[in-house]
Amino acid sequence: MILAELVKLRRSALWLVALVLPVLTVTAGALNYAGNRSMLSSGWAPFWSQVVLFYGLLFLSMGVAVLASAAWRMEHRGHNWNLLMSTPIRPAAIVGAKIAALALVVAFMQLVLLVLVAVVGRLVLGLEGMPPWEQAAVAGLAVVAATPVIAVQSLLSMSIRSFAAPVALGLLGCVAGAGVLLGGGGGVLSHLVPQALVSSALFLGNTAVADSASLDPGAVGTIVAAAGALTAAVWALSAVLLARREMR
């Protein structure tokens, strides 16, 4: 099922999103870092902090919203929905395959981000050495943390035929997540709002974010556990709702 979903997506424009979004993110981070070198300490950590600042608050979660809408768009076209509803495959498997395929696309996006950070840092900004392993660990953890956002946006895109409406709702989720983090409402609440969970993961050890947690087993374990619980809950809800949908 996952392979079938990836085959469906091979000619989709969502791969362009997975490439363009990291390019824009690293470009913005590099410009901000280069323009504020007098106020920032030199090195990979400050550069990384500038790259993931808005990426964690907005760009990654909004990218997921666009990817999910693109992944479900073909199911809402023509008679594809009726074909989907008449398949003998269980609704849980259909939804799970969508979530897994989108998670792989997000993982690819994170890989592109890491490569661009290394290339731009070395060749453009002239940073010494290579990026520390912690940055790769945070990027990988962000894929796990983004899974609940993937599940929620997949549910919205499954339920709403419009391409733009789920993306707009995703933007509201980003606003809520940013409000939770920036408004001092961290702790449990930051692990219940999917977009805030993404931000919490990307901000681990971030020198540009006040009160950001350090990259330690406790923080990582909490994020992984929250991501797993939220994803499972939304996955189950999506399967129930899909099972109750009718042909058009």
UniProtKB/TrEMBL annotation:
Transmembrane spans: 12-35, 47-72, 93-124, 136-156, 163-184, 219-243
- Give the record's keywords alphabetically: Membrane, Transmembrane, Transmembrane helix
Official protein name in the record: ABC transporter permease
UniProt entry tagged with the keyword Cytoplasm? no
The record's section on CDD domains has: ABC-2_lan_permease-like
Recorded hits in Pfam families, A to Z, give:
ABC2_membrane_4
Native organism: Nocardiopsis kunsanensis
